[in-house]
Protein 1
Amino acid sequence: MTTSWAQAGAWLEQTGSGFLSTSIRARETGTELGAYASYGLSQNLTFGLDINQSDDSGFQSAHALAFARLPLRQRKAGWQLAVELGAGLGQRDADWTPMQRLTLSAGRALSWRGRDGWLAVDLGREWHDAGDAWKLDGTLGLHRSQGPAPIVQVELYQPDYGDLAWKILPGLRWRLSPDRELLTGLEWRSFGEARLGLKVELWHRF
């Protein structure tokens, strides 16, 4: 089972169907580009790719990971649970080195005052030569039959040897077609020379 537009690891993709996202975050000190794809190979296996590249304040970072998502609990109602095993390469400045990620995801559909939506939480552990870290991402989204639908995303990043970094991303989702949505919003973060940025993301189901 999957929600209609949840970009979250708690739900497996249906066999033969998938999700594609491309994004840009624009800041005064640089830009960040991202691409994310997931595809249902079988009822119990979703395969995906997570690619990201950032050039911010003269500091370059990137990663390219392939992942497999496996079910822990998939039901018609209540909480959905899944685990992702990811591996690939990560970049810091000019060096590309092996990178691994393990993610535990939880999510559920919501209904509040006649409005439907979803809540998703992803807890990840990353291993990389540039530094191991914990990640915690949360998403709260609501659906609307007409007009823009609100969404709020929170991203936390805690390196083993460093300060906690956080980002808050409130935004609106615009339905372009039954299979495509545009997300526009702001990024407010705890670090860097430019704390405020803009985010644009295109979601596509196929």
Protein 2
Amino acid sequence: MNLVSLKDELTNNSYPGRGIIIGKTPDGRKAVTAYFIMGRSVNSRNRVFVEDGDGIRTQAYDPSKLSDPSLIIYAPVRVLGNKTIVTNGDQTDTIYQGMDIQLTFEQALRSREFEPDSPNYTPRISGIMHVEDGRFNYAMSILKSNNGDPSSCNRFTFAYENPVPGEAHFIHTYMHDGNPLKSFEGEPKLVEVLGDPDEFITLIWDSLNEENKVSLFVRYIDLETGAFETRIINKNE
């Protein structure tokens, strides 16, 4: 798989929807993840990321404008021991609870499908990062309708062992803007990672469509110590 420019991927797509990036810094010392949300409706755009323990959650920026919290208010990031879970919905809790009773990442997601938001049937995208004793591996998942047919759920899991320094994988919910929105297709894209969290979050934020971007989270995890640095940008602040 050829490495593609993350900046170009984002700049040339006005609405990738929600996206997860996971990889390793160029010096090989830190695991990296990023998660962003975008929105076209007032309800979707009326959100911010806030820290919640070791994770984050979404909340309404203006509670008076919140019309339907069911698919937009959730915890995108939770930490379970040496595992960091990143998703685009409340399946974060499903994975957390499943892995807490020794289910695998894939097994935990068997109870979930794509979102019930006809006609888009937004895919559920998820990532799991495992950092232990200086080692790092991760997996990504997408649960999506069968080309827009909600009677069938297609499940794909991609696992990455001993990731290459300076590389990451990027998965997002939609191929591009449209009505209905077309689900992401293919493997997660191979993209670059920067060594500095401030530079990386700036690269992503500046490349996202100005009108549609809402919030962005970036975390760098030290592979030796497990200590992490978090950055958050909210358009509504």
Protein 3
Amino acid sequence: MASGFRILPRARKVDAAMAERFSRLPVANVSDSMSRMTAGGARLRPMHAGGVLAGPALTVKARPGDNLMIHKAIGLAEPGDVIVVDAGGDLTNALMGEMMLMQMIRRGVGGIVLNGAIRDSAYIRGQSFPVFAAGVTHRGPYKDGPGEINVPVAIDGMVIAPGDLVLGDDDGLLAVPFDELESVLAKAQAKFEAEQKQMANIEAGTHDAAWVDATLRRLGCEGLD
């Protein structure tokens, strides 16, 4: 099988129950629980009306400006899957528009992430179907290949393997490796609960900010009272 133009099976994927549990948490809390070392880059922004993205990755490596393998991925996608496309971040040609979006909605796809551009942005912006992309252009795609499906891809240094959990909200995108789901979920839940208590203290006027001066002293800051 030739590298660069192939379709591979997906050996495993996060289940719907785990994805749903993560969907209740802010992406920022999950990110903090992964030592703030993983991110899909600030360019990838939500293009839809609003709503959380959470589901297993169906990965696509596409030639910049070409969406042949994205069409194939839509046909392979199972309900709840998130199609994650590494198209090199090129914004010259749009990789999808309203017709492909309609197909994904019809198939029950959970969302799409494009390291590339979309078109028909007004239509996409009016839908709740999660679409994250790097930009918008009216110029359409080519359909010649090559490309790969269900191979590891990387977006701005974030590696996504087939079946990994992909999360997205208004703050951006994050992928959680399949083998780390349980540990990250436990840490993220604890972080979320701690922040809820902190916000309650702020509201009540009992927030303790003594750590700020303590940190400044530890770091040798001059001029403290």
Protein 4
Amino acid sequence: MKTTAPGAVAAFATLMFAGVATHAGDLTAPLVAPAALEDTAQSPWMIRMRALGVITHDSGSVDGIPGSDLSYSDSITPELDITYFFTDNIAAELILGTTSSKVYTEGSIAGLGQVGKAWLLPPTVTVQYHFTDFGAFKPYVGAGVNYTIFYNHSDAGAFTDFKIDDTFGAALQVGFDYKLDEHWGLNLDVKKLFLEPEWKANLGGTALSGKAKLDPWLIGAGVSYRF
């Protein structure tokens, strides 16, 4: 009995040391993991600043005048958008920007010249699907709704009381972000708005009305920042 006690004590001490070491390892592991996860976690918020080209579809009409048509001036304007990611793949985007457009008579009424000018604010909300399997290249597609507000109307030529009515429209979207680092990236974005508001004006005391088939392409390029 006395000859085996030291060996038993030594074995017991070895087991205790191994258990403490293992337990200590278990305690330190979770302290490191959250820090690593915190470093790589991203905010759900992203903003983008773009230069936006607004390219309209030159089509429209004046009620009761066969062959009548309209055309519109294109423009370039700054644009801000705010995106919220519900998951890595699903996000919602709100775009904000304003620009102006001139309206011209075409077709059988081309000789009447410019009808007027209006500013427009087209806030658009889209729901997007972001593809995440291409590394720094982050393509996405989206669809949503637009509500365009026309304001600050001005008359031109012989026309008076020119006005374009506010209206809803559908929106389709495709684009991509290219990540430069954890926060910054480059963005290219193309949207198609289906926008055909009613318009009206007076010409020499005669009330005119019709449809302005703007249906613009919004083509934007700029930078993105993920918080």
